[in-house]
Amino acid sequence: MRQNPETKVTVESQAARAAAIGRMLRPRSIAIVGASPTPGALGAKLLANLERNGFDGAIHLINPKRAEINGRACLASVDDLPEGVDVAVLAIPQPAVLDAVRALARRKAGAVVIFSAGFAEGGAEGLAQQQEMARIAQAAGMVIEGPNCLGSINYLDRVPLTFIDTDISAAQATFNRAQPSIAFLSQSGAMMAVVARTLADRALPLSFAVSTGNEAASTIEDYLEYALEEPGTRVLALFAESFRHPQRLLAAARRARELGKRVVLLHPGKSSAARESAATHTGALAGDHAVMRTKVERAGVVFAETLEELGDIAEIALRCRHLPRQGLAVVGESGAFKALCLDWCEELGLELPAVHDADSPALREALPPFVALSNPLDLTAQGLVDPDLYRRTLAALLGDERFSAVMVGVIQRDAIDVKLQPLLQALREQPGHKSVIVAGLDEGAQVPAHFVDAFRALGVPYFPSTERVLRAVQRLAAHAGRSSNAAVLPPIPLALPAQRQVVPEYEAKALLAPVGIAFGASRFARDVDEAVAAAQALGWPVALKAQSEQLSHKSDAGGVALNIQDAEALRAAWAQMHGSVQAYDASIVLDGILVERMGQRGLELIIGAKNDPQWGPVILVGLGGVTAEVMQDVRLLDADLSQAEIVAELNRLKSAALFHGFRGAPALDVAAVAVLIERLGQVLRGTPAIREIDLNPVIVYPQGQGVLALDALMLLD
Questions:
Q1: Domain that holds residue 530
Q2: Does residue 591 share a domain with residue 607?
Q3: Terminal CA-to-CA distance of the chain, rounded, Å?
Q4: For the segment 174-190, what is each residue's pLDDT rounded down to a tens digit?
Q5: What are the tens digits of pLDDT across the range 685-708?
Q6: What is the pTM of this model?
Q7: How many CA atoms lie within 13 A of 149 on its CB side?
Q8: What's the total number of domains in the chain?
Q9: Strand extents, DSSP E, 275-350
Q10: Under a CB-based contact definition with an 8 Å cutoff, are residues 377 and 384 in contact?
């Protein structure tokens, strides 16, 4: 069985880890190894940051060529440090780093920040040095941030351990420590600098910004666990290209959900140009990025697609007291904008509840008779002659329980104060339980800063673009619609055959049929006479399928014969099949041949299961056969979804219309598909030694007639 590569984390070790991370982010003593008076040098910039931001703890400078810098005494070496410095920052060349880490371990330093690059990313020698640093740190109970990082910034206590010019007092000018804030955690140093600046420019309070770099002896999961417990941190934004401890990440995401906090993730890598070939369709389609995304979203993480989205989602999640759910009202001033908005929302899958005169009396009363009720709502230019129209409209929508959020799109170049003042009045009169977001249609137009500040003070983000708002709201609404892992059916363990890596079809079906996965009537035959007898018992016509652990894809080797009508045809097919398999690969030894009664036609699906060694089990469903790989019309599901959740996912397939009586065809038994997927999830959760199960095709019949899996392949560890 594959072992999960994650190190087991005990409660005690997790507490010790949090304490060590706390010493790094909230130090009372800092050593700068490689301190320098030279403008632009990393050590000089770090010292300037600490002095500029009023760090009042002990600062120890190490430079063997200087007696003092900026009036501060310099030590000659790390060995001259007092024991137990909280954090040492290495602003020195790469070749000197390993010796400095050894010396800091001897001086019982709590943590080390390493700016230098050229380690794991630089080849075998650099990797070996990084591994040795990790070994030293583990033995000494010391945390390493980096190498190849930009350090970190603690905005709460004004501790910038970075060489990027940082003025926390300016960035946090309006920040009250009791206010909700954002922690930004990034494996990329460049992204830490970019996103932290972007968030600060939006006047969004930050608690921490951390770049983890190569993660020699601390990982992004460590900082996430720590930041989660910071009371004021409401949003945790992450930029990560990989996770070293996926199960800890998922546990932290679930913990965030318990605490009412939001984790937002930007994770590049979905467009990998080359993937390893896989023995099953499921393995080929369920790539690492897709599995990761399925798991983290199920755990409660909001997934961003771009840097802009990361900032937008984080801003809405922080400013709005209540996050958007499905049910958005849109207010605009243009019929063209209304049409565009309808297109965008349909593409995004964002629900816009319909409004009519009969069911919206408050809104009808707020509007002049010539303004038709709709969602999106076009106020026309009437607001310019009747500014109170904006107040009345927003007040009516805030009182309508069909809507969880309201977006007001305004043309900013035209009488902006006439529009924004009434909106502010409505918000002040009805501070409530809904998300309200104001956005401009004409990005780049100048909006007086006092209006933007006033909206933000009321928990209302102000965006320059309506499209950005809709994308961010869709991500958050989808997140709000996901359920937790409540009422999960128990796992089902299977007794697997020994000494097997590939379980051929006849054995896989024997294992899966008793747990409720339906297969066609079949019998296994070791010789041709047994096959003829089996066919006569099952009823003609039949199919023949070659069976061997060495034969994952039978059709590639001529190992499948269909629609055999009688004994004579069966004997001929038997002989031809053995010859074809031998010609394909003479080393293949057949266990025998499976004889199966031909089934009726129906809609073909591929349904498979994968037990990812890091992330755990997932289920894949899509259009059957190679079509799934060509069209990519698949959904990847967590293995603990309820039947209702599975049906909802099935209806998100591009081809979902085929389930519901497309062009006069009968509606299909979607409920039976959901049951099969649910059972497959139970099996995978109960039998971690299963690497993959491939059921391809699965035939779906009309409602009440069930499903039938025609093939089954199981891969074991």
A1: 521-597
A2: no
A3: 5
A4: 566 668 999 999 999 99
A5: 999 999 999 998 999 999 999 999
A6: 0.90
A7: 30
A8: 4
A9: 301-304, 328-332
A10: no
